[in-house]
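Team,

Forwarding the record for the chain on the shared tracking sheet. I've put the sequence and predicted structure together so nobody has to dig through attachments.
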Amino acid sequence: MSSKNRPGSTRDRNPPNPKTCAERMICTVVSAPTPDRVIIDGGQKTFTSYAPTPYGYIIEYPDAKIYGMSVEHGHVNVSDVDHRFEIGERLSVIPLHQGMTTNLHDQVYAVRNGQVEATWRVAGRGKVR
């Protein structure tokens, strides 16, 4: 069994989107080395690197694709996006694997209209034996 995102698959037809998934990781553009690529401050320590790609869906720019990651940075293909990215720009990313991503963090922040309403501890964090 392969975990690749195959054309016509359920994941291909119904990718995570703001109406079906509440989880967001807020990442910052830290570099724009070429017009077709930006680097964000979310990598394997923020998202999981478990296949398939893209590793997350950028809400503001659905055609941008997180195609690679290092430990602390994500590499985003923006060749299909008509926008000039600025260093410091914030992006809202829905992770492809929400459960695995949540388990990488100690807390989850509940945010509504830009305001933190609650903070929840991730009870399963660090419990793998």
